[in-house]
Design a protein that fits this description.
The chain is of the alpha+beta class. Helices cover about 45% and strands about 15% of the residues. It contains seven helices and eight strands; from the N terminus they run αββααβββαβββααα. It has a four-stranded mixed beta sheet, with helices on one face. β4 (about 110-115) and β5 form a beta hairpin. The relative contact order is 0.15.
Length: about 250
């Protein structure tokens, strides 16, 4: 119970820091208001930069605790490991994620990469070419549309290499990439695949482990970016002079 209370406090504190950082940069904790045409409404000053740096250090420590606790829970509980390995929770699909020029996970900019159920690269394309590779299927029983790989086609809600269905999200991003762009997260990435049997992972339950790996990555990136000397540059907006492509 004591461990639960202590961990709960850490979770709430980390959540508060993340919200505070969003508020400082975007003007609001929920829906950012600082983004305007051409950039941001105001730059980050040194005082706020230092504040974010301190919070980022705490977030990184929390990420490390989360990762170590998650690994310990899995390694100490044979039944959980069996469930993770169970075919009952496995779906062999294609996976889509964004990667940088080193094939590492990127959450902001990069190429869209798709790998097949064996982990082999199927296609890589720019975001602007999305409609050349992705189509949507409509079912009469739902308003939700089902995106699928255009080259494979829609074969129904079935798994396998002949089905155009693909997955996205934390696990899909890790399956599609060749690693993480920060050192601790990359180590955690390698450990996850080593412990769970290699790439790609098809277990839907492995998604939670992938989430923890991304938490480490994000914490490292915040800490890295806030130390960049350009982060307090006063030039944060370029006034648009027209619409791209129009004269």
């Amino acid at each position: 119970e004591k461990l639960g209370l202590e961990l709960g406090k850490k979770v709430l504190t980390a959540r508060g820091y993340a919200q505070k950082i969003q508020s400082i940069i975007g003007g609001s904790e929920v829906h950012a208001t600082g983004g305007i045409a051409g950039g941001l409404s105001k730059p980050l000053d040194e005082e706020k930069r230092i504040e974010i740096e301190k919070m980022s250090e705490e977030l990184l420590e929390f990420a490390k605790i989360s990762l170590n606790l998650f690994k310990k829970i899995i390694s100490d509980n044979g039944k959980l490991k069996e469930i993770l390995d169970s075919k009952d929770y496995s779906l062999q699909t294609y996976y889509m994620g964004m990667v940088d020029d080193q094939e590492k996970v990127n959450l902001y900019d990069g190429d869209i990469k798709v790998v097949d159920p064996q982990g082999k690269e199927f296609i890589k394309f720019k975001a602007k070419d999305y409609l050349s590779h992705i189509e949507e299927h409509v079912e009469p029983w739902t308003y939700v549309k089902f995106p699928y790989l255009k080259k494979i086609g829609w074969k129904g809600l079935v798994e396998g290499i002949d089905s155009g269905i693909y997955r996205v999200g934390p696990l899909a991003r890790l399956n599609a990439a060749k690693g993480m762009a920060t050192p601790l997260a990359d180590q955690a990435y390698q450990e996850m695949y080593d412990l769970l049997g290699g790439k790609p992972l098809h277990s839907a339950l492995a998604l939670n482990w992938a989430r923890v790996v991304e938490i480490v990555y994000i914490a490292e990136r915040i800490n890295e970016l806030v130390k960049d000397k350009e982060i307090t540059d006063k030039k944060v907006r370029t006034i648009p002079e027209g619409i791209v492509g129009e004269r």
